[in-house]
Amino acid sequence: MYEDWKENILPLVYSAPESLDPSSFSVEEYFAARSLISSRSFMIDEHHGSGMVPLADLFNHKTGAEDVHFTSVSPNQEYEDDVDSENSDKSELSKFSDHDERASSSENSYIHSDSDHSSMSGEDTMILQMIMVREVKSGDEVFNTYGSLGNAALLHRYGFTEPNNPFDIVNVDLELVLKWGCSLFSSRYCRSRLSLWRKLDLSGCASEDSEYFEISSDGEPEMELLTLLYIMLLPDDTCHKLDMTICTSDKISRNIGMILSEKHDITWDTSSEISKELLLTEKVCGALLTLADIRESCYGLKSMDEDMEVLKGCCMKERKLYHSLVLRTSERRILEKLRTYATEGATRSQTLQNANQTSTRRKRLKKH
């Protein structure tokens, strides 16, 4: 932000007439304006782009418990709604339902117009409406929603967090996965397995220059991560066989499915989706446990219990410390759930393996 100010604002101040007050365009003023825009502006529509909308940007966020939705409608539609409400006592409920459907459902409560150029072409002007979606008592704060966002996104974009946020996630960078791989195998080995994984048209989530995998709030990893770990741990001959069979459009189902069907002695339907249970071998579960430890090491030497004690004694006046601790503790809880997920998966894998071995022995006895 400082570099932006120095490159774009400072030259304007130098070239401005003497009547312009330079203090109004200082770096502090620029930071204040940028902070307001980053935390309160949102996408209005494709024609207008992002903007600051008075009243619409007034409301604070509450996850999954908002009181209002914002939507844009034409005056004709507003008139029709008013007429309908006079015709029937039940129409008020349908009005709320209709407005709720028209209300923005995108990540930051975007407001979309049916006509991008309505305000420019002289056609019906779109009207911004605030629709109450639940009853609010007099004197209570009215909340909007910025979308289904975890604490990391809320803190990064808006500067706050929410305790017990059901949309919390933990990101595990691809670099951490490769770090784990290189602790067991050579760099060349890891690169070749990563290349094979990409041949299956798989990738992690992308953000700027990084690639990562999400662990959900209940500790469940993405299928893409499980598949990468599974391929990393395949025997060389099985991996070579998989590499040779990648020739169909439905790569994941047919190729990984073929390997799984042979390993677990099951009949594979190429139209089926891969079950995470089949990918959760004991080795894959062990890898998840190690990744959880590597990811948690990013928080430093303090334990989860120590973080919780500091959080309990932290007041809201220490906003930065409080919200950073809420984020840290929520993410560490997810990592603990990931460990539970991996441990239970390893147990189920061992049970499945024992069942397969018993089934194989019975088949051999019947042949004899």
From TrEMBL:
Record's compositionally biased regions (Basic and acidic residues): 87-104
Stored SUPFAM superfamilies: RuBisCo LSMT C-terminal, substrate-binding domain, SET domain
Biased composition (Polar residues): 105-121, 346-359
Residue span of region Disordered: 73-121, 346-368
Keyword entries, A-Z: Methyltransferase, S-adenosyl-L-methionine, Transferase
InterPro entries according to UniProt: Rubisco_LSMT_subst-bd_sf, SET_dom, SET_dom_sf, SETD3_SETD6_MTase
Domain SET: 34-147
Protein name: SET domain-containing protein
UniProt organism field: Hibiscus sabdariffa
